[in-house]
Every structure is written in structure tokens, then in C-alpha cells.
Amino acid sequence: MFPDIIPQLRASMPELRGRVVANAAMADLTWFRVGGPAQILFSPADEEDLAHFLSRLPQEVPVTVVGLGSNLIVRDGGVPGVVIRLGGKGFGTVSVEDGHRLLAGTAVPDVKVSRAAADAAIGGLAFYRGIPGSIGGALRMNAGAHGGETTDVLVEARGIDRKGEVRVFSHDDMGFAYRHSSAPADVIFTQALFQGRPGDQAAIQAEMERVTEAREAAQPIREKTGGSTFKNPPGNKAWKLIDAAGCRGLVIGDAQVSEMHCNFLINRGNATAADIENLGEEVRRRVRENSGVELEWEIKRIGVAA
Questions:
Q1: Which residues, at least 6 apart from 86, have a Cβ–Cβ distance to it below 8 Å?
Q2: Given 20, 121, 137, 298, which residue has the most CB atoms within 10 angstroms?
């Protein structure tokens, strides 16, 4: 448990409207269902509320942003400082704009963006059907799947920086690379504008069904998992390297490398965050010894060890 600093925060933020919770359970917010508490969990009412909070939050208080928790390990000791999670009410809308564009809040699940595009006969966004996170995470890591990436469709992104100021980033400002954006780390994205293309609704829906079927056939999506664990090294596939190193089915504690897709780690029911992270590190060690390749984590890991 962390010290409760909510009274001090509220005293300096008289106009705050969002929900603030001390020692909030983070395991409930992640797909792995592991991890300790957030010292403070803040869910802003809207962009203005977020700006108010950040502009008055002492600079020495660390800020961590989480989305749907699909690509996240929260360590067992919890997360000191403030964890910010944008909610659907203030950041969860999608609208169709002129010119085959979509405007989406960053709390919107990626799959919802793909569905909105399909409903409007807008092509180019069906790949989001295969990504389990939200748009905020997609912006931060240039999320992609099934031949498409965020960089292919983003026009601009809007966010709030640590000073509480609104920032707008063009596509070029985002500095996209493979599973990476070089946008300033202190910016919390709130909105994204996407450019699609004219499409046939039936064809788009068929493509989304193909993506769904491929994902269900190849990935352990009904397990407690975090999606792809490691980035694909240049010219290679992480799962092939993991398989070649003999890690398929490997177990530490109650964490396991998936038998179905060995770039996925699974909580079999009672794993700790340490079990999962240690398993990932053991996989990295074995791959390094077997092939000389250094796997890089794709799953985000936050907080402190127990």
C-alpha cells in the first residue's frame, strides 16, 4: 500500500471533476490479471479536466498512462505516483469526417475504429480488427497487424503534455518506426484523425472476418495473456526464434509460454507479475544463447517489484 496523497492533490485542484482513487487495484485492469496497486488512479472527465490535473500536479510526482491493459505487465509492488486511464465517456467516441476520415478518442478500442470504418465503407482500417488495445496505445507504439500499421493511416494526433498544454502532432511529428513513436514521452494522447479510402462495405467486412478468423486460429486470445511479447527482429520472426530455442510450453511459476503461439505468455491462473516477467527474461536468455539475437520486449512493463 502507498501513502494516500489524494487530500493534497484535491486541495490544489479545486475544479477537478474526474475520478481519483488511492491504492487502486491494477490487476483488474490488465489482461494478465496480475500486479500491485496504483498509488493514485485518475480517470479524467474530459480533455479539459486532464489539462487541469496535469497543470497542477507537482512535477516530482511520476505519471504513468495505461489503456485497456492488453499489452501490459504491472509489477507486483505496484505503481508509485499517478496512473492515468482515459475512460470511454470523455475519450471514447468515433465520428466519420469528410474525405473518408475518422476522428477517434484515444480510449476507443482499435476494433471499434475498424467497425466504424466498415460501417461507413471506409477502407484501409480493417487491420485494427486484429489489435486488442486502444487507439492511445496504437499511437504510442505504431501498432499494426495483418499488413497494416498506424503510420499508414494517421493524419494527426492531439494530446496534453505534462504542463497541461494542448499539443497537436502531424504524422511526421510522430516519428513512427516499427512498434515505436518518438513523440514526447510526457504527452498523453487524447484524439487521433485517420485517413481511409473509398471502399466496398461487403469487401471490408469480409476482410475483417478474415482477420478475426486468422487471429482466433493462431493466437491464445481466450487466455490471460498480453498479446505479442517480443518485437520481431529485423528479417526474422520472434516466435520462430523462441520455438527454435526450445521455449514453446516453457513454465516458470504459473506462467507459461503458449503452446499455440510461442510469442505469447500466459497466466495459467495464479501467476505473479514476477513469474511472467521472469519467464520472458528466460526466453530472451535462451534465444540469445541459441541464435545470438537479442529479443526486445513489446509488452510494456511498469511499476516496482514486490
A1: 43, 44, 50, 65, 67, 105, 106, 107, 136, 188, 190
A2: 137
Task: State the virtual CA torsion across 125, 131, 134, 140 in degrees, nearest 10.
Answer: -90
75 vs 22: CA distance, rounded Å: 17
Tell me the one-letter amino acid at 191.
Q
Would you say 86 and 190 are in contact if contact means Cβ atoms under 8 Å apart? yes
Closest CA to 302 of 58, 65, 140: 65
Catalytic positions, written as ranges: 179, 228, 298
pLDDT single digits (tens) 226-246: 989 999 999 999 999 999 999
Q: Are strands 144-145 and 148-149 parallel, antiparallel or unpaired?
A: antiparallel
**The pLDDT of residue 13 is above 90:** yes
* Class for the domain spanning 6-89: alpha beta
- Domain 220-302 matching CATH 3.90.78.10: the answer reads yes
